Amino acid sequence: MNTMNGAQLIVKLLERQGIDIIAGIPGGANLPMYDALFESTAIRHILCRHEQGAGFVAQGIARSTGKAAVCFATSGPGATNVLTAIADAYLDSIPVICITGQVPASLIGTDAFQEVDTYGMSIPITKHNFLVRTVGELLTIIPRAFELALSGRPGPVLIDVPKDVQMAEISFAQWPEPGRRTTEKATDIESLRAAADMINRAKRPILCLGGGIIHAGAAEAGRLLAEKGGLPTTMTLMGLGAIASDHQLSLGMLGMHAARSTNMALQDCDLFIAAGARFDDRATGKIVEFCPDASIIHMDIDPSEVSKLKTAHIALVGDVKRSLEALLPLVTENSRTIWNNQIEVLKEMYPMTSPEARVPEKPYGLILKTSELLDEGSFISTDVGKHQMWAAQVFPFERPRQLLTSGGLGTMGFGLPAAIGAALAHPDKQIVLFTGDGSLQMNIQELATAIEQQVNIKIIIMNNNSLGLVRQQQNLFYNKQLFASDFQIDIDFVTIAKGFGMKAVNVEAGGDLPALLERMLAEPGPCLINVPIDREEDVYPMVPPGASNSIMLGGCNAEKCK
Amino acid sequence: MQKNVNNRDSEMEKTRQVDAIAVLELVVNNHPGVMSHICGLFSRRAYNVEGIICIPMQDGMTSKMWLQVNEENKLEQIIKQVKKLPDVLTIERHDGGHRVFERVGVLV
Ligand SMILES: Cc1ncc(C[n+]2csc(CCOP(=O)(O)OP(=O)(O)O)c2C)c(N)n1
């Protein structure tokens, strides 16, 4: 017989799931769980400075490893604070398990101190959620939460545990099996044959790899299919790294800030093969004008995604890796020279950058220089804004999970804690955060966590002293009325970082940026480098929100390349 | 005149289409959160649920639920979403309605 209280049971069950890191903050309603954590030798607790930070630390672990990761928060404000990170995980399908303390069951519904309806508030932003009503239920709920978070289309699961349930004694004879990812049934062969036939007949097909490819470990399967069929391959923001950016068939990211050549090729394609991608409006632009002449093959594990926004001629519902692997022998080898040459011409006519934009003092140059200085196997985290799009456009991503970025929710403040999470999960790797001065301020308190844990992260602030992407939109679409997008004070991030105990340097005008970068990247432990970026540096091309992807502003660099 | 009548006819035809009723019959786990999970899928999409009937099944562990809704394009998507809920065990769609609402309708 095993006898313990609910909190100890939770911690033991998490240990049995293989969890070795939990990020969180204690409070009245989850103190029993913290008391149980104190006893645990297998789990390292990461004390964050805000529950949103804890949620994003868990995300950083989950995104960089593909495994489920756990965060803790107390009831009331702890729970409301963590919700943004959970919503973010929901939109990007990240397996995070959030365990919140709740007021004792007898007080639920009485407006007790620090009581909020965590269960109710988390329904629309979780894959599933639980309010634990008896201690015995934990034996099924915890493994089930992991199974749900990891299986099919992954996603966050929240478990709300009243304090009395945490303290209740339980005796039980047998431990439950840990929850695992369940295997999906394969796509039916008829549809696969039809899809292969459609691919074989296509003259101008394009393959699009989305975040689902990363989650399913299907990057290689995607590449093999692309190579065999001579399929030019684009990626969504979440799919970057699925195929190496220097691969001949890679078209980079599609959509609002894609290379002109990529959106133009899409406009022209006769078959669009979406694999683990969900036709997000930032990727498709005005949906009725997206790939106007193309048939659609849609591979997705989530049946509700298929034909949600764009009717699929062929739906391959199931594990995208298995679908891709099953397609491979059915697709005939074809280099599609004419189509690929046509795209090559487009790429030459519309290069993403120009030599003058690639100097290290400018956004693209800074990002490219950083990439040159990084070891193999390093990770890139970003926040949200221009700097994120610049990185997505030109950083040479070469492998799945290399990029950690908030795609679906686009949450400023994601970058720092996510980088910390990735660093905790990969202590021997370099983690670089590209952030903006606006985004960094959203979770700047996590500098303390980074220092306390001595994680190997390098923070590069692309500092334009403004909410850059907002400013750009006001310039382009709101009559240049800049309002609430330029900061009125200049913050000294280096002093702030030093106040937290972090090594930090400023890039001075006329200073040797590459040398400074090299020195900072070689430093052990966390450090920060503040790089001034001109406010007027905008991110192009840009498809105006709501417009067709054929309407792109800026980004004509051919002249500058001569 | 003739034209007007025609117009009205096609207008009525349209209204009729909009008003076509479907009933979704679900078997769900019986616990306090299930109703919120299901109704949330509709409210989030600004889709009105016209009628709900829910009663526990013999075992007490599960309930049977009937949702009366107007047929709209979004219905297909919502059904897919409902199917994804772990607490929903089965779902059946009845186009044109279900007699359970006729019986209850007598009471209102
Ligand atoms: C939490 C949150 N609030 C507001 C926004 C809207 N928003 C998108 S980009 C942006 C500006 C980002 O500024 P910064 O981090 O400095 O990056 P930059 O665009 O200057 O590179 C804002 C306010 C957001 N994405 N997330």
Description:
The complex is a heterodimer of chains A (562) and B (108). Chain A has 562 residues and is an alpha/beta fold. Chain A starts with a strand and ends with a helix. Chain B is 43% helix and 31% strand. Chain B contains four helices and four strands; from the N terminus they run H-E-H-E-E-H-E-H. Chain B has one domain (20-107): 2-Layer Sandwich (Alpha-Beta Plaits), CATH 3.30.70.260. By secondary structure, chain B is α+β, with helices and mostly antiparallel strands. In chain B, strand 2 and strand 3 form a beta hairpin. The interface between A and B is medium-sized, with 12 and 13 residues. The complex binds thiamine diphosphate. Residues 383-387, 410-413, 436-439, 442, 462, 464, 466-470 of chain A line the site of thiamine diphosphate.
Provide a quick synopsis of the model.
The complex is a heterodimer of chains A (562) and B (108). By secondary structure, chain A is an alpha/beta fold.
Keywords:
heterodimer; A: 562 residues; alpha/beta; Rossmann fold; 3 domains; 6-stranded parallel beta sheet; 20 strands; globular; B: 108 residues; alpha+beta; 4 helices; 43% helix; disordered N terminus; binds thiamine diphosphate
List the helices and strands and how they pair.
The complex is a heterodimer of chains A (562) and B (108).
Chain A: E1 2-5, H1 6-16, E2 21-24, H2 31-39, E3 44-47, H3 51-65, E4 69-73, H4 77-91, E5 96-102, H5 118-122, E6 128-131, H6 138-150, E7 157-162, H7 163-167, E8 169-172, H8 189-201, E9 205-209, H9 211-216, H10 219-229, E10 233-235, E11 250-253, H11 260-268, E12 271-275, H12 281-284, E13 295-300, E14 314-317, H13 320-327, H14 337-349, H15 363-373, E15 379-382, H16 386-394, E16 403-404, H17 415-425, E17 431-436, H18 437-440, H19 446-453, E18 457-463, H20 468-477, H21 493-500, E19 503-506, H22 513-522, E20 527-532, H23 558-561
Parallel strand pairs in A: 2-3, 2-4, 4-5, 5-7, 6-7, 9-10, 9-12, 10-11, 12-13, 13-14, 15-16, 15-17, 17-18, 18-20, 19-20
Antiparallel strand pairs in A: 1-8
Helix pairs in contact in A: 1-2, 1-6, 3-4, 3-17, 10-13, 11-14, 15-16, 15-22, 17-19
Chain B: H1 2-19, E1 21-29, H2 34-43, E2 49-56, E3 62-70, H3 74-84, E4 88-95, H4 99-105
Antiparallel strand pairs in B: 1-3, 1-4, 2-3
Residues 383-387, 410-413, 436-439, 442, 462, 464, 466-470 of chain A line the site of thiamine diphosphate.
